[in-house]
């Protein structure tokens, strides 16, 4: 048992030690720009990645502002798409599962927006189809993937946040994606705190 | 209606190396940041009014693009084959010719908007290329390409101009503390003197052979500037700006004049680490990097000179840096896809 735990911890630590710093920094810059311009952030993924997308929505829309909720002239506008199970099942049943993200995304994307696509394999067809919709709209794509760096999402995303692991290491990839999401949450939380507290500090 | 917004910029180091006579022989390089002052272009389709209307500092309504006085709108419409049924208006946070890149920022917003009017979406790189093509190829203006890229991409970047005409935009990945630190040590003043960049650049262009080595040093110093920026060494940055300004003054006789020299000198004597005149020179804005605590003294010294010289439009311009570049803020046009 102990060996198993040590082994898993080792892999997780290694993944975190090798975070792609520059790509994460680029993503933070893009998100800063979207915030300034009041654009929207759309996030999606399958299974565990869908859960990370939902967590991301909560942390960006509320947690990053939570120390001074009423004191910012605007807040992030982040949504997981599709917004409801009804919409998801309608696209899946009527058109095909490949279109569950691409279909709803095509309805809403505007020039000021950004897309975050999460896929451990980086090869899920429904994720790639949605990224192609973003490309058509010339909207930047932040892609979080794992396994092999030659995966499709990592090839076509504008910001390539890739967690290199052997194929099939979903647990390590997903928890590292979660860490990256929390890193970005913490960055913006500190930033928004600083904006308000810095002002107070200056009297 | 289509509404497009693009930011103005502050250029730190390397201006002039974005001219083709230089970068075709040696890669040019600049470092600049977009700021929270914007140019807006609004474009309206008027199928029932078969005219062309352009509203800027004046208002023109004509039957065909060739009759327009506004050279950029005229050239853009002719190039894109838009011959009637359009209204174009421009709006800005600051007056033109301040040295903050406003004329190329206008071109960026215009080209993005006119392409949207035709149902084409442009990304940031395509928009910068289109604006550069409009100004340099179609209109033959003797200007460089740095402003078109700064306005399209937004953020703080090193932009490199390669001999094969390709351009690399490399974002400087500053965290918010360093970004706010730089913002906080900066003072920007509009002198109230306006000038056309092209008049200074024409002389500068004719001097490129003579000044080749100076321009090469300016392009190289961008790396050093970026390093100090990432280290948060604002004093070092100020000193580099000072050196850069002295170099730039040597490029053309009309980059500076006695009023600009007096304003700049007053800021330095009052404790600024360094600074520069923004834009091609001869007027526009003067920017300083100033240690904490010296800001009131610099403000006072500079304002005193402005008063002496009777610069009635002189004012301080508070700035914040922005990450966002050119964006369509609203598109309700029928050609939207």
Mean pLDDT, all residues of chain B: 92
User: How many angstroms does the end-to-end distance of chain B come to?
Assistant: 14 Å
Provide the succession of SSEs of chain A.
HHEHEHHEHEHEH
CATH topology name of chain A, in short, is Rossmann fold
Helical content of chain A stands at: 55-70%
- Just name the CATH architecture of the largest domain in chain B: 2-Layer Sandwich
What is the strand content of chain A? 5-15%
Extract low-pLDDT stretches of chain A: none
- Helix/strand-derived category of chain A reads alpha/beta
In which order are the strands of the major sheet of chain A placed?
Answer: 2-1-3-4-5
Task: Determine the CATH superfamily of chain A.
Answer: Glucose-6-phosphate isomerase like protein, domain 1
How many domains of chain B? The number is 2
Number of continuous helical runs of chain B: 11
- Shape, principal axes of CA atoms of chain B: globular
The strand count of chain A comes to 5
What this model shows, in words?
- Chain A is α/β, with parallel strands linked by helices and 203 residues long.
- Chain A is built from eight helices and five strands, in the order H-H-E-H-E-H-H-E-H-E-H-E-H.
- In chain A, strands 2-1-3-4-5 form a five-stranded parallel β-sheet.
- Chain A is globular and about 50 Å long.
- The termini of chain A are far apart.
- Chain B is an alpha+beta fold and 337 residues long.
- Chain B has two domains: 2-174 and 322-331, Ribosomal Protein S5, domain 2, CATH 3.30.230.10; 176-316, Alpha-Beta Plaits, CATH 3.30.70.890.
- In chain B, 40% of the residues lie in helices and 23% in strands.
- In chain B, strands 1, 2, 3, 4, 5, 6, 7 and 12 form an eight-stranded mixed β-sheet that branches.
- In chain B, helix 4 (124-138) packs antiparallel against helix 5 (146-153).
- Chain A binds chain B through residues 22, 25-26, 29-30, 32-34, 36-37, 39, 110-112, 136-138, 187, 190-191, 194, 198, and chain B through 5, 121-123, 126, 154-155, 171, 173, 175-177, 180, 322-325, 327-329, 331.
